[in-house]
Amino acid sequence: MAEPVNAFHSIQTDKPVQHINALIGPLSCDRRVTVFDAGTQKPFPHISEHVGPIIVVLEGGFEIRRTDGLVLVRGGGPYVLGLGEALYGRGRHTIYCTTALNIVSLSKEEAFEIVDKESLWSHVANLLAWQLQLMVARDEELTSVDAYTMIRAKLSELYMLKTQFGLSFNIVDFIQQRTNLSRSIIHQVISELKRGEYITIVRGRLVDMKSSLPQKY
User: Fold this and answer.
1) If we measure between CA atoms, which residue out of 14, 3, 16, 5 comes closest to residue 140?
2) According to DSSP H, which parts of the chain are helical?
3) Residues facing residue 202 across a β-bridge
4) Burial of residue 133 (number of CB atoms within 10 Å: 0-12, 13-18, 19+)
5) CA-CA distances (angstroms) from residue 3 to 125, 161, 196?
6) Which is nearest to 5 in space by CA: 132, 194, 180, 140?
7) Percentage of the chain with pLDDT > 90?
8) Which of 76, 78, 118, 186 has the largest count of CB atoms under 10 Å?
9) C-alpha angle 49/112/53, rounded to 5°?
10) Given CA atoms 25, 109, 123, 42 in this order, what sign does their dihedral have?
11) Same domain (yes/no): 34, 134
């Protein structure tokens, strides 16, 4: 069955690995690796007094969440977090470790000294540009649209995660954590899509979906 198109997920999986790897080597060289267990949740970007705001993710998966629990982005190593926050001084989010997370951290001053010395700003720019496009695509799915449009977009993302990576999530939890819609609204829409045989759910998990869901509810 053909997979539904989801701009946010497509951009998310098209990670600029070449540029990230060009940054990871110099930024992580000869630095101590810190390991966080799966399920750990910390403030981001200032995880602790011992962890700098520039975080080089060597291995493992994470989610960046708002303080109210809304999932903004999901990612995994290799990755570099905190560059934008270091440049503009914002950071009111949390990082949640979906698996064990191996990181190296640096202060803003240490990181940018290395970037200057190694002439890495083009790689920083490419990474930040990709992250910007990711947030634009996410906002297009969730801003000034109705509840059904949000649910439809997240179902497409969830189905791609299943087919491409074999990942499985509770369908209601997945949608609620990424939209803040009420569980009753999500259940109502999901029930109608099941009744119309657009989706197949087993034990609360999406197992199959038609390539084209209705545009309107």
Assistant:
1) 5
2) 7-13, 17-28, 83-88, 108-117, 121-142, 147-165, 171-179, 183-195
3) 205
4) middle
5) 31, 11, 18
6) 140
7) 64
8) 186
9) 25
10) positive
11) yes
d(CA 131, CA 24): 16
pLDDT score for 50: 59
Same domain, 136 and 167: no
**pLDDT recorded at residue 98:** 92
Question: 73-104, pLDDT tens digit by residue?
Answer: 889 999 999 998 888 866 678 999 999 999 99
Statement to judge: residues 166 and 140 lie in one domain: no
Whether residues 60 and 134 fall in one domain = yes
The full length of the chain comes to 217
- Give the whole-angstrom CA distance, residue 28 versus residue 183: 42
Give the end of a domain, one of 111, 126, 144.
Answer: 144
pTM: 0.79
- DSSP-assigned letter for residue 3: P
176-199, pLDDT tens digit by residue? 999 989 999 999 999 999 999 999
Whether the CA torsion 38, 43, 44, 48 is positive or negative: it is negative
